[in-house]
Amino acid sequence: MKSYPYQIQNWEEYQEQYARSVENPEDFWADIAQHFHWKKPWDKVLEWDFKTAKTEWFQGAELNITENCIDRHLQTQPDAVAILWESNNPDEPSVSYTYQQLQDKVNQLSHVLTNLGAKKGDRICIYMGMIPELAFAVLACARIGAIHSVIFGGFSAQSIADRIQDAQASVVITCDAAYRGNKTIGLKEIIDEALPQCPSIQKVLVYNRTHSPVSMIKDRDHWWHEEIEKVTQQGNPHFPAVPTQAEDELFILYTSGSTGKPKGVVHTTAGYMVWANYTFVNVFQYQPGQIHFCTADIGWITGHSYIVYGPLSAGATTLMFEGIPTWPDAGRFWEIVDKYKVDILYTAPTAIRSLMGFGLDPLNNKDLSSIKVLGTVGEPINEEAWNWYHQHIGKSKAPVVDTWWQTETGGIMISNLAGVTPAKPSFATYPLPGIQPVLVDENGNEIQGNNASGNLCIKFPWPGIIRTTYGDHQRCQQTYFSVYNNLYFTGDGCLRDENGMYRITGRVDDVLNVSGHRIGTAEVENAINMHAGVVESAVVGYPHDIKGQGIYAFVIFNAFHENEELTKKDILITVSKIIGPIAKPDKIQFVSGLPKTRSGKIMRRILRKIAEGELEQIGDTTTLLDPQVVEEIKRQALPPAFNT
Ligand code: WTA
Q1: What is the C-alpha radius of gyration for the chain, rounded to an integer number of angstroms?
Q2: Do 428 and 502 touch, CB atoms closer than 8 A?
Q3: Into how many domains does the chain fold?
Q4: CA of 549 to the centre of ligand 1 (A)
Q5: Residue 539: CATH number of its domain
Q6: Is residue 76 a part of any domain in this protein?
Q7: What is the pLDDT of residues 315-356, one digit of tens each?
Q8: How many angstroms is it from 295 CA to the middle of ligand 1?
Q9: Distance between Cα 620 and ligand 1 center (Å)
């Protein structure tokens, strides 16, 4: 029997479902959507127009996503475990919440948020470590109909302030501090540094995770435990889920693009829910009772869709981990797999490559036999890492799913279905039902047939598609829907092999992928240029053994310290302050000029070659304003020894 009525079980069924999803998408998605809990059914399944970047799914329907993630499971499996939590500290006891307990926690917090004045449609910023309370916060926002904007704990005060201002958020939920490996990161302090720039914020709710000293501002800041206490003193009051429309905004998640300013990607309620659930159930082939361990942070889309909404809407057990893969040692993931008998492990190529570097010793005495499915996401996975993962972690038995998707797509777009459709190392393989990929050349012409490569676009909407960029719909339209006529443009290059399988080759725009984190080169340049001594800078990516890509910055500096290393440190501090430590360049080279065309455009192609160490393959420089500058940059280029 199928565990989920829409779970695809074999290759023939995949082909049938795929064909139907293309021929008759509305019926296809209506059949799947009927398995969810609706307060009011939809009038129309799909309305769309890529020209204006408008997509509406399940128009007219009313629902609350938390009734699908929690309430409906209470009738069938109230005592099933919803969330398992492993601390950063291996000696701290683990914690688990059944669906009933999750209901209680989310209901209490919904009351707290309402008591603080939050209401439907308000934007709530969440800046917390990976603790269960982060999941409660996300769900409580959804339950009251507020729009959450989770900000990854590695972003700086300035980045937080930019995001809060853009969304005009009224509440922040944070922690005193977060544990990460051997570090304690003072989250509340960072929030305090951001808030003077954010007049829209009225309330700050602070969860006490580490007992770090913090300053609490009168009337603005409130302790989580005190507010919960006020609610529970009145018993354990239910919080009736607020009805939302199918297309009401569920969350904003900021992501980098090729301009200097991050975009607030907006997902709405019904389509996102159906898509996160459908992709979770099919790609990972989840079976009830299994333990699903996604190692992402909820600050990224992977955590939204495959720690919170996908698994919980499917009644699954989702395992959250507070720490990092290499602390206290490089056996941490394997210890967790062994401890909880993890069935599904979903992680990033960068983590796999970094753990590979520690050899096989960390696997000693770790029983990994519970693993049934392995997944990767976030960046292209090289064959060596794929094989290591398959052989040493999956013991050559567990299928590896290489899942390609984006913040903008809400859920997995191109991937094999574990054990159901074929895998091929370093290939994401075939599209999920509902996804119609096309490859186009620079002129936007579709490239037909197999053995082809081009820019990856999607030609028909799917339920999880981006709806808008917050506060600026035109930006959404221009970035994604007007590069190529009538197509959604992904920003990725891609090839299709002789069997029609897809391999994503990486970004074709000025976006870097560093350890699976999307970072715009323009953003890093803006941050570097904030340093008082910097005249101009240009940032490019170069191949990095572990991070996938490293950041190489060419900087024109006008006021040298005596010590060049100190100057570099100053610049790194500036980038950390403006964006966050994740955007710090790996290499900085001081230059006296940048290669520019006569019209003043920086020739990044040349800088990329230099950063890659391919000094002989720079090509024609005669169109440059000053070809001499290239010679100078080449002479002083930093060695291409990766990992430095
Ligand atoms: C890249 C993460 C190759 C790609 C879910 C995409 C991948 C960007 C893969 C989105 C994959 C993601 N193979 N490349 N399996 N998965 N990417 O928005 O360049 O953080 O455009 O979403 O990561 O990153 P984002």
Answers
A1: 24
A2: yes
A3: 2
A4: 13
A5: 3.30.300.30
A6: no
A7: 999 999 999 999 999 999 999 999 999 999 999 999 999 999
A8: 15
A9: 32
